User: Which sequence fits this backbone?
């Protein structure tokens, strides 16, 4: 035991920090050094517990929907209920203990409460479907209410007596006339004796000054509280405005998305109309070309007909020339005998028959 006491304070803190907070609170009765170290660890544990709870609550609320109707059906609704119940319990504990802890009159005494809150927070973190709030928080409610009742009934009266004695002992700190007030406390008799000559009227004046100062301090505190309340109201209004603006931004984002979709559809229709107009232009050019082609064909046909006519006329002229040549050949031969006459007649008949055959097909053309 002496070896533990002789250890440095940092080493003793690291050793005791491995224990639960309930065991740390019980080890305060060992000695004064243990009492100082355990007080530090208990106060630090309460602060760590508050920070860890705030972190868990923030993480759960960030995953919940904004609408209250949708939160009830969300899987994390039970987590949120448990954490809010723990928040109210922590606020009650802080209202009971923390102002006396800040005055360095005591520490956060119930270490078992810290252990229970950490246990519930770890259970909520690790389990997806925790039990109901009244089931999991039954032990925490019982031990926290017992701790607060014990503090109010047993510990708080002693702390108030110590506060009153400390105030009386520090009355000499105020500026008194002629510096003639000297108060000596006798712990055995409990009486207060006045040294040097000092009247009760001057003592009453000094207490009146103290009372006036306390009233002024109370007025200042009330004014500060009023300012804080105004700031809280402004923060709430700004939060409401921020929520409304975020909703407006979401609506504008939806409208922008719809407009983008409409523009894309209009572009698609425009491309389709451009393609149709291009097809119509191509058909129009084709129809124009087809309209110009018949004129060329007609002119070609007329030229062909003229060419055929010219060829027929040339053929007719050539036939006439051949006939004339044949006549001259026949006429040159002078008949000398009856056989020659018959032969000439025969040739003339042949020539006439050939001409009639040639004239027949030409007339048919």
Assistant:
């Amino acid at each position: 035991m002496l070896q533990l006491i002789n250890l440095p304070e940092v080493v003793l803190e690291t050793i005791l920090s491995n224990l639960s907070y309930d065991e740390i609170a019980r080890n305060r009765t060992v000695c004064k050094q243990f009492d100082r170290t355990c007080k530090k660890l208990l106060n630090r544990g309460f602060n760590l517990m508050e920070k860890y709870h705030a972190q868990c609550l923030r993480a759960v609320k960030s995953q919940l929907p904004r609408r209250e109707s949708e939160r009830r059906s969300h899987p994390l609704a039970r987590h949120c209920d448990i954490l809010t119940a723990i928040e109210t319990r922590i606020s009650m504990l802080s209202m009971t203990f923390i102002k006396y802890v800040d005055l360095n009159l005591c520490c956060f005494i119930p270490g078992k409460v810290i252990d229970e809150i950490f246990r519930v927070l770890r259970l909520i973190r690790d389990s997806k479907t925790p039990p109901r709030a009244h089931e999991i928080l039954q032990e925490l409610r019982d031990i926290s209410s017992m701790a607060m009742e014990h503090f109010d009934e047993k510990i708080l009266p002693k702390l108030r007596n110590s506060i009153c004695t400390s105030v009386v002992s520090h009355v000499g700190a105020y500026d008194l006339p002629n510096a003639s007030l000297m108060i000596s406390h006798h712990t055995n008799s409990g009486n207060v004796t006045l040294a040097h000559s000092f009247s009760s009227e001057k003592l009453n004046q000094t207490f009146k000054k103290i009372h006036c100062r306390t009233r002024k301090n109370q007025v200042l505190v009330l004014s500060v509280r009023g300012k804080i309340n105004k700031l809280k109201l402004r923060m709430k209004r700004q939060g409401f405005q921020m929520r409304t603006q975020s909703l407006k931004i979401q609506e504008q984002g939806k409208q922008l998305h719809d407009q983008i979709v409409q523009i894309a559809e209009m572009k698609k229709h425009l491309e389709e109309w451009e393609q149709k107009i291009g097809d119509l232009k191509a058909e129009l050019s084709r129809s124009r070309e087809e309209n110009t082609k018949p004129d060329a064909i007609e002119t070609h046909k007329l030229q062909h007909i003229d060419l055929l006519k010219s060829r027929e006329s040339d053929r007719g002229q050539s036939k006439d020339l051949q006939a004339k040549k044949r006549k001259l050949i026949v006429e040159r031969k002078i008949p000398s005998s009856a056989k020659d006459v018959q032969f000439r007649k025969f040739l003339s008949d042949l020539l006439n028959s050939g001409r009639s055959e040639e004239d027949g097909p030409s007339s048919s053309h």
In short: The chain has two domains: 1-169, 273-364. The first helix runs from residue 2 to 6.
